[in-house]
RNA sequence: GCGCCUCUAGCUCAAUGGCAGAGCAGUGGACUCUUAAUCCAUUGGUUCUGGGUUCGAAUCCCAGGGGGCGCACCA
């Protein structure tokens, strides 16, 4: 689109002409000694404040109560010498009653030059129209910022998802649903912080730039530090740094932050996403399940005002019991065949093939069980369910189950067929951890780019002694999707990753 | 990365091989209680881009670009 500043004067309509018209308005104001972009404006009430305080005033009442409000012009109904304007701020909308007789001839003429999209500050008295609409009987209007571009249609809004995500500012102006979604996301994260503060956790910030990105199975982004002249990876998890802090004696730590995984996008994946990771000394995976449930139920209550949510058309109360089911049991139920990582590879390969899993030659028995789980049982999990007892060989940082050395003391929380959280009893035996790292390194060398490397500094930390520890990671974006009731991750990320325009 | 779908005015959408249109927004006019105000008039187009087929292409074909969905990868 050609939307550069026009030097000549477009006539007629269209975007260029519209911008020229509005720019001319700005010039005219400056010519008259007015400031179209003043530095500040002090309002006495938000639009919802006015509603709360005067919402029950009878129809046709004019009060003497003065208010100063601000907002963006969203609708304009001009009946000649009386104009009704709907303005909106971040949480509400309110009508302005602009009467020529009240505001005066000169100001009325100036008001008529305002456009949809302009930001204005208004002084007046609170009234209710004969039709019962709460309004501000306006006696003064200040232009706070001129909008040079026209807004999308107020009622149809934006439908093109590309435009909505690229121009999120426009989406947020016209789409109350979008504003609500991000408000829920904010409340959810704020709730996490309150809950964790109540449990005596401390919030920390650890490096995003890693020499070797570890703590998860994923391919990292590579970047470069110029003066150190070295390649660095963006972190794929926060885990290993937080556990160093457990070694350091911080006992209860968490970080809410961004991690980066060099993978494709989907309705459930964005290359950068947000995660809450927390670690608690002297706890194990069962305690982590309790905390997960508490964090999420509390967040739902505080962000939505209820624990009742809709999961693909089905009403679910998050406050109900969350079942804890072993992965191998769920697979057995779904396939009718008992499975265990100790079984011969051939048996599991055959079962995987029968359920449509594309078997990689390098897949271990544990990996096959996980894939069979994903192919058969995962999609039927709607209500919150802890899937536990993952095969140990796909859980290189988790402790072995105290009753079954082939399984990990690990859980993943699934809701609506999506993984929301992951936690375990943390492996704190440095010798065992080295063996696991070495196995990862071998798989990596064999061509599995998602596998990890040996992190010597982390091993050194463990050698100083890490207390028994429970760890948890919660996918912020996916949980926000669940609470906001949206079905793509781009709806809960303000600026999702997109290819550049043009 | 592969497959399918999609892209028309600032926004929302029509036009299915035969004159590129409507509603909203904009512009001009009327109106002092509107509620997506209403009424009259009216401006506005690189039909994503580049090729091709055809007397004629928004429409059919090819290539490219953006987006969506599915698969793969993954949380």
Topology:
Layout: H1 14-31, H2 47-54, E1 62-78, E2 82-88, E3 93-99, H3 100-103, H4 105-111, E4 119-128, E5 134-145, H5 161-166, H6 168-174, H7 176-198, E6 202-203, E7 209-210, E8 222-225, E9 230-234, H8 239-247, E10 252-260, E11 272-281, H9 285-304, E12 308-311, E13 314-317, E14 324-326, H10 327-335, H11 345-354, H12 365-376, E15 385-388, E16 400-401, E17 404-408, E18 410-415, E19 418-425, H13 430-445, H14 456-463, E20 469-475, H15 476-484
Parallel strand pairs: 3-5, 6-10, 14-15
Antiparallel strand pairs: 1-2, 1-4, 2-3, 4-5, 7-9, 8-9, 10-11, 11-20, 12-13, 15-18, 16-17, 18-19, 19-20
Helix pairs in contact: 6-7, 7-9, 7-15, 10-12, 11-12, 13-14
The chain binds one RNA strand of 75 nucleotides through α1, β1, β2, β3 and α5.
Short description:
The chain is an alpha+beta fold. The protein has helices at 14-31, 47-54, 100-103, 105-111, 161-166, 168-174, 176-198, 239-247, 285-304, 327-335, 345-354, 365-376, 430-445, 456-463, 476-484; strands spanning 62-78, 82-88, 93-99, 119-128, 134-145, 202-203, 209-210, 222-225, 230-234, 252-260, 272-281, 308-311, 314-317, 324-326, 385-388, 400-401, 404-408, 410-415, 418-425, 469-475.
């Amino acid at each position: 689109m050609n939307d550069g500043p026009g030097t000549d004067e477009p006539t007629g309509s269209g975007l260029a002409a519209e911008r020229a018209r509005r720019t001319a308005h700005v010039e005219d104001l400056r010519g008259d000694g007015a400031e179209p972009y003043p530095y500040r404006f002090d309002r006495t009430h938000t639009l919802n404040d006015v509603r709360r305080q005067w919402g029950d005033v009878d129809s046709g009442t004019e009060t003497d109560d003065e208010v100063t409000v601000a907002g963006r012009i969203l609708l304009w109904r001009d009946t000649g010498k009386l104009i009704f304007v709907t303005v909106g701020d971040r949480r509400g909308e309110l009508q302005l009653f602009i009467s020529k007789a009240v505001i005066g001839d000169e100001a009325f003429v100036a008001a008529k030059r305002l456009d949809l999209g302009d930001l204005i500050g208004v002084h007046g008295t609170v009234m209710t129209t004969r039709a019962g609409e709460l309004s501000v009987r306006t006696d003064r209007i200040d232009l706070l910022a001129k909008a040079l571009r026209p807004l999308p249609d107020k009622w149809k809004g934006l439908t093109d998802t590309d435009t909505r995500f690229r121009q999120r500012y426009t989406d947020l102006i016209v789409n109350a649903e979008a504003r609500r979604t991000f408000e829920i996301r904010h409340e959810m994260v704020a709730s996490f912080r309150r809950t964790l503060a109540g449990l005596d956790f401390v919030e920390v910030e650890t490096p995003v730039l890693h020499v070797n990105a570890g703590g998860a199975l994923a391919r990292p982004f590579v970047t470069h530090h110029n003066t150190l002249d070295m390649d660095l990876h963006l972190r794929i998890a926060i885990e290993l740094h937080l556990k160093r802090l457990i070694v350091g004696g911080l006992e209860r730590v968490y970080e809410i932050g961004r991690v980066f995984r060099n993978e494709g996008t989907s309705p459930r994946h964005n290359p950068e996403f947000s995660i809450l990771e927390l670690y608690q000394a002297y706890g194990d995976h069962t305690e982590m399940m309790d905390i997960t449930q508490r964090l999420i139920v509390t967040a739902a209550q505080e962000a939505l005002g209820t624990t009742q949510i809709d999961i693909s058309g089905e009403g679910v109360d998050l406050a109900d019991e969350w079942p804890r089911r072993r992965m191998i049991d769920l697979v057995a139920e779904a396939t009718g065949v008992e499975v265990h990582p100790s079984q011969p590879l051939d048996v599991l390969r055959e079962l995987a093939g029968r359920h449509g899993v594309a078997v990689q030659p390098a897949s271990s028995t544990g990996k096959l069980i996980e894939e069979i789980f994903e192919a058969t049982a995962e999609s039927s999990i709607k209500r919150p369910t802890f899937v536990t007892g993952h095969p140990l060989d796909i859980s290189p940082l988790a402790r072995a189950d105290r009753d079954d050395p082939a399984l990990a003391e690990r859980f993943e929380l699934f809701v609506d067929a999506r993984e929301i959280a992951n936690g375990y009893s943390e492996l704190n035996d440095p010798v065992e951890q080295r063996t696991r790292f070495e196995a990862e390194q071998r798989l990596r060398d064999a061509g599995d780019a998602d596998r990890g490397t040996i992190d010597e500094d982390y091993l050194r930390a463990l050698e100083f002694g890490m207390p028994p520890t429970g760890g948890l990671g919660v996918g912020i974006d996916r949980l926000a999707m669940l609470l906001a009731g949206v079905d793509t991750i781009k709806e809960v990320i303000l600026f999702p990753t997109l290819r550049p325009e043009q």
